[in-house]
Amino acid sequence: MDEPLLSIQDLKVDFSTNRGLVRAIRGVSFAIRKGETLALVGESGCGKSVTAHSITRLIPTPPGRITGGKILFEGVDLLQIPEPKLRDLRGSRISMIFQEPMTSLNPVFPIGSQIMDVLLTHTKMKKVDARAKALSLLELVKIPAPERRFKSYPHQLSGGMRQRVMIALALASPNPGLMIADEPTTALDVTIQAQILALLEDLKEKIGMALLLITHDMGVVAEVADRVAVMYAGRVVEEGEVFRIFENPSHPYTRGLLESLPSNPLYKETKRLKAIPGSVPDMITLGEGCPFANRCPLVRPECTLAFPEPTTLDTDHKVWCYAIEEEPVL
Amino acid sequence: MTGLGIIAVFAVVAVFAPALAPYDPLIQIIGDRLTPPLTDGYFLGTDDLGRDMLSRIMYGTRISMIIGVVSVSIGSLVGGLVGMLAGYFGGIFDRITMRIIDIMLAFPYILLTIVIVALLGASLVNAMIAIGISQIPRYARIMRGSVLAEKESDYVLAERSLGAKDGELMFSTILPNTLAPMSVQATLGIGEAILSSAALSFLGLGAQPPTPEWGLMIASSKEFVTSAWWVVTLPGVATLIAVLGFNLLGDGLRDVLDPRLQE
């Protein structure tokens, strides 16, 4: 196994609120290798976006605070380096695209000049060259008539177009290493969603960058991810190669997630989708145990006491669950 | 837009006052003193020293426009900068500056202006500075409010994620998005500054004789209010129309710039 591009080790993030301390991330670890797509899956509020924002330290502080762990990018701990050094990485080696393409572009500037700004920030390009590069980026993300669109304002573009512009912005660097896509297709309709995903995959191959894809859509995961990390209430509960997770989901939560999809064979028989009983725990009152314990069909006494150590099922398939030894590993 | 039309007329008069005015505003023709309007070639009559009222009001336009623009520039630049820093960085700087602003707002506007002029000494320049300082709080408040709203928006986070520095975020990302409310307030502020400078000059704290300033013109001829109505009334009417013009322009700008009021 080669050295991972990004490796997150036991990351912990707290938010102080009026009601009390929210321990949003309670020890998240995963790694992404060069050129790989890792999907971070989980329901709303489980800490996917907080994890993603922590990587480049974009958590609003206060109220947020990274209280522990390491984020190694090419061997450098991003939590230790000074702000200016990190800023140089943002947008050049690590870039992000966001969920809401409608509001993620500055409304008062034409898109072309926004892309040029990023280029001029990170390189010593001349204006003419930056313009040419910006045009070629618009072309790369398959925006029709880039010459004409160059002077368009964000409100003149559709959601899908704006997300393409966001991707172009994220690619506006000489040497992109990692792209973090925070639910890039959630706000888009299904046909556009497919186009954007295809574009991301295509670009990943062309440029050879790694992709951290944050999503709650298992369909998207199956389509583009190489590996998956399943998150629940601030913890990673299962991590592994995408086909292993889909074929042999080992954590009760992952199983519940996959069983609740319409593609589950059970759905054909009963015409009813299976749901996970109960709801997500309150992150303020939640104790040290497994956060899924109150909804888990296989719950045991030790589950509520402490979070389990990972069990390695296969090469590159880990699960954090006490009930795992009893399960027949297929 | 009525406001824009009025302001355009005043602006033209201010710029071309030397060419448009029929007389030198300072020349006294004692024999023609207190001539009523529309007689002997004096369109708006003459004042108690025989100076042509029309020419004086035209030159007064110049002074009023300069006062309006200069004091609003002082107020909005200082206030805007304070508001931007307070809103963007928050924390202790925000708390201290906003409490100072609260204290300034606790003084009645004109009283605060008078206090500052009293400290600086009575002159037209000091009046402009005083009016500018008195207007700082409102710009600081508006800017801070807009910045607080804008800095949480997705595009600011997006640009930060692309490696933008604090300065770039403040002045090239957020600032352009706050200009709409600021420009509306600035337009209204010019009207108010003109009014305040007239008031200060009337009280003897602004322009000094023989400057053709509207407030001063009213003050120096107030004893003729029963015998020669025009010397007192006409500068007042000029002030009224100018302030009305700026207020209408401000309201119009707000309608244009606020998308919620557009159909």
CATH class of chain B, please?
Answer: Mainly Alpha
Main β-sheet of chain B: number of strands, strand sense, barrel status? none
CATH superfamily of chain B: MetI-like
Radius of gyration of chain B: 22 Å
Question: Per DSSP, what share of the residues of chain B sits in E-state strands of 2 or more residues?
Answer: under 5%
Taking Cα atoms only, what radius of gyration of chain A do you get, to the nearest Å? 21 Å
Task: Walk me through this protein's architecture.
- The complex is a heterodimer of chains A (330) and B (263).
- Chain A is α/β, with parallel strands linked by helices and 330 residues long.
- Chain A has one domain (6-104, 176-324): 3-Layer(aba) Sandwich (Rossmann fold), CATH 3.40.50.300.
- Chain A has eleven helices and twelve strands.
- In chain A, a hairpin with a 2-residue loop joins β9 (227-232) and β10 (235-241).
- Chain B is mainly α.
- Chain B has one domain: MetI-like (MetI-like fold), CATH 1.10.3720.
- In chain B, 73% of the residues lie in helices and 0% in strands.
- The mean pLDDT of chain B is 89.
- The chains are: A alpha/beta (330), B mainly alpha (263).
- The interface between A and B is medium-sized, with 27 and 17 residues.
